[in-house]
Amino acid sequence: MAKIPFFLVGFWLLSNCAGLLEAEDMMKYKNPKESNDVRVEDLLNRMTLEEKIGQMLQIERKCASDNVLNKYFIGSVMSEGGSIPVPKASAENWIDMLNEFQKDALSTRLGIPVFYGIDAVHGHNTVYKATIFPHNIGLGATRDPELVKRIGAATALEVRATGIQYAYAPCVAVCRDPRWGRCYESYSEDPKLVEAMTDIILGLQGDIPDNMPNGLPFIAGKEKVLACAKHYVGDGGTIDGINESNTVIDINELMEIHMPGYLSSISKGVATVMVSYSSWNGVKMHTHHDLITGFLKNTLHFQGFVISDFEGIDRITTPHRANCTDSLQAAVSSGIDMFMVPKFYKNFIEDLTILVKNEVIPMSRIDDAVRRILRVKFMMGIFENPFADYSLVNYLGTKEHRELAREAVRKSMVLLKNGKSDKKPLLPLPKKVPKILVAGSHANNLGYQCGGWTIEWQGVSGNNLLEGTTILDAIKNTVDSETIVIYEENPDIEFVKSNGFSYAIVVVGEKPYAETHGDNMNLTIPSPGPETITNVCGAIECAVVIISGRPLVIQPYVGLMDAVVAGWLPGSEGQGVADVLFGDYGFTGKLPRTWFKSVVQLPMNVGDAHYDPLFPFGFGLTTEPTEAIYSQ
Ligand SMILES: *[C@@H]1O[C@H](CO)[C@@H](O)[C@H](O)[C@H]1NC(C)=O
Ligand SMILES: *[C@@H]1O[C@H](CO)[C@@H](O)[C@H](O)[C@H]1NC(C)=O
Ligand SMILES: CC(=O)N[C@H]1CO[C@H](CO)[C@@H](O)[C@@H]1O
C-alpha cells in the first residue's frame, strides 16, 4: 500500500468537503431536490451571453465533433434525414456516438448536458432494424387513438434504445390538398381526427400527471422521449399544396382547421413545437411574432420550447440565406427558442451576439428562450442521467413492436371496392386454390412499402436496407401450402391469360418521396402501374392494393378492377396487408381523406360546398373474418 502523508489526506478531505458543501449550497441547479423553476433560474443567472446563445443552437451530428459542443456551448445535436454514425449503425453505435457528444458538453464550465433529436416519424425510421410503422395517413384510417398511443410508446422505446431523447413527431398538419408532398405525414384533412391522433404524444412522452397546469412540458423518464408538434401553423394549407409556400386563409379558418392540433398537443404536455417553413397570408411563419409569441406563448401559455425547422432561418428569404442577419433578427424576435442551424452555427453566434450587444434584441428575449430549453432539460432528468447505457438496446425492432405495427397495418387498410356489380365480392380471397399471380412494382419492395423518411430522407428501394415482411412474402406466408404463388412484376396480357391463375393480386403505387420531391400536380399512378393494372385486371379477376401517400387518380381503372384497397404506406410489416386480404381479419379502415375523381377538383375536402368525390371522407367497406363466415 502506497504511503500517503496523513496531513495531505487531511488537507484533501478538508478542502474537498468544504468545496462540496459550498457547491451544494450554491449550485442549486445541480440539486435534484430543488424545484425545476429554482434550478432553471439558478442556472440562467450563472450563464454568460455566449453560453446562452450556444444553448439556443441545435447542430447536425456531422458538425459536432472536435470539441465543438464544448467550444461553443451548443445546446443540442441532431440527425438530418438519413444521417447516421456508420452504415447500418447498431443501437450501440448510436449510443457510443451520443455519449461522446455528452462528454464534450459536460466538460463545459457549467456542464449543461445536450440532448439529441431525430425524425422518428413512423417508428425510429432512420435506424437499421427498427420497426417501421404506417405513415400517419394510414394511422388516420384506423380511427384508433389508443392504437396510435401504443405506437408512440413503442417508438419512444426504440428511439431510447439508441440513446436518443427527442423525436420530431407528431406532425399535426391538416393536409388540405393531396398534391402536397408531405400529405402522408398528415393524419387527415379533418382537424378533429388530427386532434384525436395527438394521443400519440401520451405514448411518446408518457401520461401527464393529474392537475398538471396546461402548457407545461412533460416527459416521464428514461423510456420516453420529447415529442414535437409540427409544423406551426398552416403547413397543410398552402396554395395547390406547394411545399413551403403560402397559406391564404382568414384567421377563423386558421383557428378552426390548422390550430386545433396544437391546442390538444399542448393539453397533452407536448414539450416542443416546430415552426413551419410556410407563410400565412404572405408572412413567413419563422418571423410570425403574433402567432408564436402572441398566440402560442401568451394566449395558449405554452411553456415548452419552440424550435425552428431545419435551416429555417435561411429559408426566410428567396434565394436562401440572402439576408442572414435580418432573417436571424426576425426569427429570434418572433419567439423561436431553439434553432436548427446544422452547419453555419458560427455565423449565428456572431450575428446574434452583435444583435444583443446593440440592444436590437433584448436580453429578456434570450432569457425566455434559454429558460424554456433548460426547463425541458430539467424536466426530462438529463442533468441526473446524461449518459445513455445499453440497457434498452434490445427494444429495437422487437417482435412485440412488429406485431403492433402489423395490427396497425391491417386496421389502416381501406377497402374501396369489393366485387363487380354483377359478381359476388372477391375479398376475402380463398387461400386454397391451385395457382395465383402476384404482380406490381410494390409487391416485393420493402423500401417502397415504407415510403419517404425511411432510412434516407427520400426513402429507399429494395429489401436490403430494412428488416420486415414484403407484401409478396406475406401472401406466400398466408396461402395454403399447396397454392402456387407466381410473382411477375409487370406481366404482359398473354402471360396472365395463359397460366391458369385463379386470381391475381396487383400491388402498385407511388415511389418514395419526401417534402418538395413529393409535390405532384397530376397524382397519376406512376408508370408502369396503370399498364400492370390493365394487363392483369383485363384478363383475370384481380384485387389491387394501392401503395401511396395519398389518394391517386384511379377513376379510369376502377371499372376494370374487381377489388381495390387503399394500402397507404404500411411500413415494414406487410403481413398486415395479407391479414385482411385473406380474411384472417376483417377490413375496418375508413378513408382519412376524400378520394377525388380528378385533380381539377382539388382542393376538395369534406364539408366543402361542391363535394363530388369518387369515395367520400370516411368511406370504407367492411368484411367479416373468414372464420365468422364459415361459422354462419
Ligand atoms: C434583404 O434586405 C434588404 C433590406 O432589408 C431588402 O431590401 C432586400 O429586399 C432583402 N432581400 C431579400 C432577398 O429578401
Ligand atoms: C406527374 O407529376 C410528377 C411530379 O411532378 C412527374 O414526375 C410525372 O412525370 C407526372 N406524370 C405525368 C403523367 O404527367
Ligand atoms: C421553398 C422551396 O424549397 N421550394 C421548393 C418547392 O419545390 C419546388 C419544386 O418541386 C422547388 O423548385 C422549390 O425550391
Automatic annotation (TrEMBL):
GO terms for biological process: glucan catabolic process. Residues 48-376 form the Glycoside hydrolase family 3 N-terminal domain. Pfam families: Glyco_hydro_3, Glyco_hydro_3_C. Residues 413-622 form the Glycoside hydrolase family 3 C-terminal domain. Keywords: Glycosidase, Hydrolase, Signal. Gene3D superfamilies: Glycoside hydrolase family 3 C-terminal domain, Glycoside hydrolase, family 3, N-terminal domain. One of its GO terms (molecular function) is beta-glucosidase activity. InterPro entries: Cellulose_Degrad_GH3 (IPR051915), GH (IPR017853), Glyco_hydro_3_C (IPR002772), Glyco_hydro_3_C_sf (IPR036881), Glyco_hydro_3_N (IPR001764), Glyco_hydro_3_N_sf (IPR036962). Residues 1-23 form the signal peptide. This is Uncharacterized protein. It comes from Vicia faba (Broad bean).
